[in-house]
What we know:
Shape of chain B: elongated
CATH class of the largest domain in chain A: Mainly Alpha
Number of helices of chain B: 7
Helix content of chain B: over 70%
CATH topology of chain B: Methane Monooxygenase Hydroxylase, Chain G, domain 1
Number of strands of chain A: 0
Order of helices and strands of chain B: HHHHHHH
Order of helices and strands of chain A: HHHHHHHHHHHH
Distance between the termini of chain B: 16 Å
CATH architecture of the largest domain in chain A: Orthogonal Bundle
CATH superfamily of the largest domain in chain A: MetI-like
CATH topology of the largest domain in chain A: MetI-like fold
Largest sheet of chain A: none
Distance between the termini of chain A: 62 Å
Strand content of chain A: under 5%
Number of domains of chain B: 1
Number of helices of chain A: 12
Strand content of chain B: under 5%
CATH class of chain B: Mainly Alpha
Oligomer: heterotrimer
Number of domains of chain A: 2
Radius of gyration of chain A: 24 Å
Radius of gyration of chain B: 19 Å
Amino acid sequence: xxxMNMEISLRRRVTNIVMLSITGLFTLLTITILFCILGYLLxxxxxxxxxxFFTNLPKPTGEAGGGMANAIVGSGKILLIATVLGVPVGxxxxxxxxxxxxxxxxxxxxxxxxxxxxxxxxxxxxxxxxMVVKPMHRFxxxxxxxxxxxxxxxxxxxxxxxxxxxxxxxxxxxSLALGATKATTIFTVVAPAAIQGLxxxxxxxxxxxxGETAPLLFTALGNMFWxxxxxxxxxxxxVMIYQYAISPYEDYHQQAWAAGFVLLALVLSINVTARLxxxxxxxxxxx
Amino acid sequence: xxxxxxxxxxxxxxxxxxxALVENAVYRSVQGVVEKNEELAHQVLKNEGRINELEMQxxxxxxxxxxLQQPVAADLRLVTAAIKINNxxxxxxxxxxxxxxRSLDMMREAVIRPMVDIPHIAGLVQSMVRKALDAFVNRDxxxxxxxxxxDDGVDNLRTAxxxxxxxxxxxxxxxxPQALNLLSVVRNLERIAxxxxxxAEDVLFLVKGIDVRHHNEERLAVHSAPVAxxx
Amino acid sequence: xxxxxxxxxxxxxxxxxGINAPQTSVIPKLRTRDLNFYYGSFQALxxxxxxxxxxxxxAFIGPSGCGKSTFLRTMNRMNETVRGTRYDGQILLDGEDIxxxxxxxxxxxxxxxxxxxxxxPKTIFENVAYGLRINGAKKATIAETVQRxxxxxxxxxxxxxxxxxxxxxLSGGQQQRLCIARALAxxxxxxxxxxxxxxxxxxxxxxxxxxxxxIKETTTIVIVTHNMQQAARLADHTxxxxxGKLIEFNDTRAIFQNPKKKxxxxxxxxxxx
Lengths: 287, 231, 273
């Protein structure tokens, strides 16, 4: 081997080691930040968790104890409305894009949904405020759900489209060749074949909006008591965290940590379930 | 059942029919000579048409199988053997016709000598024909080898006959026409035996996948090659 | 082996009526007249005119991209699902123009089996029952028809104990036979097969060929294959496609033993290109 070759070889090895070190270092940094957040939440949150946190209403300032039962239920109701609104709309639009529309139109719609996805969540909140809260003259669970539902639509559309497109065309042809109509084919063959992906995609979508705060400030507002029905202002975990965290009281801060921890656990469990559905374990949807 | 099987079965059946017709023709032609039976000789001439027709049908079927079914291994050997056996059988049919025609020539003449050698040769040749066909039907290699062994016997008898008939001709020139006819009968019988030998060789190829032609010194002892028995 | 010579009408290659073989007792099930097919501006089929005999096996051979699969897929209007395609000319099923018929009706009468087996991600039973359900078969008859179809596809004895297992558990050859059973369940009058054995081993291929011989008794079969030996073994009639044209169509033995066109001769002898 000539000297020149040895030099080149040495330089290459050094470059390689440097690149490996730099990328590795930053990966480590990312993970560290993530675990810091998790650890911090765990550290502060878990201490304040108690049975009463899940069962009791918030206590007035200064009184010890109290919980966030109303916020947990409120979040649940808001997410339910969001799902009922966002999933069907997104799914059907996704079906249209994947199965019916021409290339140009699909491109335009995809572009628009990407734009919608990029709209700041607070703007969505303002929109829902203008469309629902103003006409009804009140903040409500419904308005909060609609705001989050709108936020779910873009991802629901894209998820549906992606997963339907991933279904091999040969399955559509097999169905059509038996004399099935296109609609029958989509709903009895194509969608069932993609069900795993669709379900997990929608769950991830739900997990994503579960932590949204800004849109709820304008819509569900907040409530220190139980919210009856769907047209009352409602508490929700993210808003509760916001309100408690900015308050000057130490025990409220503790409650906020606990709420943050619960919200994280909720999002995490939805995520893990979705991953399990994707990997096919625990999925009855497979058949 | 594989689709090709039907064709192969049909091919075998047609070859057997052909074999039976030829065997019959050989027998009748010789009987025509020996018994001076004009009726038998005419039957031989009449049946030749059927043999020729069958030859064409067998060729057509065999080529059809080659074209459409692409037989391989034992199936391929069966089809190629069938084509060759078919050819030999048709020639044997022609030779039987030759014998029948000789017999018609001699029909009105008084015999110049006792008919001993011809029935003798004919018996041997007919047994060769039958054994060769049986060997084909039963895929019997040993029987096929026995046909090869008989060929030398026929050759010896033909040589003896030849010398005897020459001596008759030398004795009395008026014997010459009939002696020539008888000579022709003997030669045709000998050639029928040769075709039987060919068939036996084809059977060995069919059953064992070995070629025993043109190796006279070896062909009687071909059991050394480690060839799996085909069935 | 007596085969009625089929009827060919390749108007692109010769004057009208060109190589029409005498049309005697063959009843054509499917016929095309002046069929031209286009992918956008590319013309994939040129003036195809052919009579496909009822209850016979008709094979189409030819090099890749010659249009044989395209032609097959026009006969159940499957190409209409592909964007940017159009065609003109006539395709007649029992003398009736299939373009004037309801498309789902055409596809129920003219079934199709694809190159790659494509069972639905459902159970074996549901795969076969699918066509029955969507065509509104009575519930009581479904199980019976499923069994009969699986029997016709020579699959019943192999899978009768695992009817409710997913179809994906079957071997490649079994999956393809399942697809044939699925197609047979709706009792099509014509079965189109697009290179059905190209992904199968010789044993599975042989099983499918035997199966097609059985089906032929009740169903007109049209098969596209790039395996010439398969066409020779299977088909009563064979057509040779080249560059979107039907070069020659005749009984199979004539195509492989004594083709009339030089292009056919070159292709079947492997001197092509």
